[in-house]
Amino acid sequence: MSVGSDKSGRLRLNPLDWLLLGLILLGLLLGAWYLWRQSRGTGERVELTVLLRLPAVERSLLESADGLFAAGSAVRNGNGTAVLGTVREVRVRERLLPAVREGGLVWEPDPQLADLEVTVRMTAQRQAGNGLRVQDLRIAAGGTGSFCLGNYFAAAAEIVWVEEQPDERTE
Amino acid sequence: MNERNETEGGFRLSDWFLVLLLALCIAGMVFRQWSLRRGGTGELAVYTVTAEWRDVDSRTADCLSEGEWLRTGAGELFGQVVRVERLPAAVRLSEGGQWYEGTWPDEARCGLVLTLSVQARESQGLLLRGGTHPLNTGETYLLYSGRAELRLFVRSCVQNQDVQESNS
Prior knowledge:
The complex is a heterodimer.
Chain A: H1 15-40, E1 44-58, H2 59-62, E2 74-77, E3 83-101, E4 104-127, E5 131-134, E6 137-138, E7 144-149, E8 152-165
Antiparallel strand pairs in A: 1-4, 1-8, 2-3, 2-7, 3-4, 4-5, 5-6, 7-8
Chain B: H1 13-37, E1 45-57, H2 58-61, E2 69-72, E3 77-88, E4 90-95, E5 98-103, E6 109-123, E7 126-129, E8 133-134, E9 140-144, E10 149-159, H3 161-167
């Protein structure tokens, strides 16, 4: 049984079929173009200095021979497929916990965990109405992002501070 | 058997079903745009919105300045920051049935109270930002400035036409 076919067995399409096919193809092409545009990154190129906080890192990891990563390590996106920038500085901060001592609130360092503050330099695009973006990640102080710092995966690192820097290549 | 499913001009029953689906999609989009208007068509008024940005690293708070415009995640303008007041972030701990309160050492963390200027319109008891999106007291909004991401808890919305005049 064949519906809508001519004597030779080929499928016969009416104008409405062609219209619907055209709409679907147009939608697919628009979607592909939009994704390509997003991945390419549009907007003004901006150099950023970003301060990341990696909370609650085990001290035992920091005390290994090479530590976790050092200044100069590459900063990659969460799945490690693209280099976004470079680590400039790594600082270990005490992770302070509130405690009650002698009838008052005091702050004590966590004996097992510490916070890492990492200064990174990366290149972003300033998109109108869409902020500063590195690939599909929005860089904004108060937000979070997952990065690969050297060989260390920093899940949901807190973006503490963002500052625009003059492009070193034009200085 | 092929001709039984076709009307004159080659249109099949399934084609008309697809046309109906397409018409319903278009009708849905039109209805959604219409429903956002909510029957209010007057001019927008300026409202003073007081909001809190809670428990923020002090360096993160430095990334927000007075006069900046805040946008939603979709890029729509939300309002302008008129005033920023910084307060130390309080920490409360309970032990032995008693509450103890303190602040972070070196004011490492703080809270901000923001005064915003937002254009909105009241319609059927609802305050609509930009005439379309609800602006509710007690709700938290995810907003963006040029360099910061803010989770703002709205404490009050008061119509104040003088704010726009004083800022011009």
